[in-house]
Design goal:
By secondary structure, the protein is of the alpha+beta class. It contains six helices and five strands. The longest helix is centred in the middle third of the chain and has 37 residues.
């Protein structure tokens, strides 16, 4: 989304993408000052640029809450830059905003996935460690008990290998490599 204001903060231009991202109608905000339209301090601060900052952009990010509970919060990232006229005089400010809600949700899902994955890996590892310690520290175990523990270690290591192979499959799917389909006719 793109917003352009004069140097004093009066909104002069707003594209449809900015309307959609910010949940505003262009007709309602053109000609108004940003302080009349926006309450978010981070967003308001991006218009507080001075002439001595003219060669730099300012990046920012903020949450935008929505009255529509189905939509919830939006996460916005953007940048603002002074708009320079003749003689390098500041004549306005250009603000570009981008909705990063989807990326935030994906990051949250990845975090949840990693937490679950760590738990799923820890369970068989704990069993492997426990039974191998018993075998190492108790040399006088009956052969039947020893074989039972070794079978359990083997089963848990196979479970662990299956989990790890699943992760590797996910990695291959994300990279688009190593995926082949075996097509055949079936009823």
């Amino acid at each position: 989304g793109l917003l352009v204001t004069d140097y004093h903060g009066k909104i002069e231009l707003m594209n449809p993408a900015a309307e959609n991202i910010l949940g505003l109608k262009k007709e309602d905000v053109l000609g108004q000052y940003v302080s009349q339209v926006f309450e978010n301090k981070t967003l308001l601060d991006c218009w507080d640029m001075k002439v001595n900052e003219k060669y730099s952009s300012r990046s920012f990010g903020f949450e935008l809450s929505n009255n529509d509970t189905a939509v919830g919060r939006k996460y916005i990232r953007g940048s603002s830059t002074l708009l320079l006229g003749t003689g390098n005089n500041a004549i306005g400010i250009v603000v570009v905003v981008r909705d990063i809600t989807y990326e935030k949700k994906v990051d949250h899902l990845k975090s949840q996935f990693l937490s679950t994955a760590a738990h799923e890996l820890r369970t068989p590892l704990t069993s492997l460690q426990g039974f191998s310690e018993i075998l190492l520290n108790k040399p006088n175990l009956e052969k039947e008990t020893e074989n039972k523990y070794l079978r359990y270690i083997n089963e848990e290591s196979l479970k662990l290998a299956t989990i790890i192979n699943g992760f590797l499959d996910i990695s291959r799917i994300e990279s688009g490599e190593g995926i082949s389909l075996n097509k055949s006719l079936c009823s």
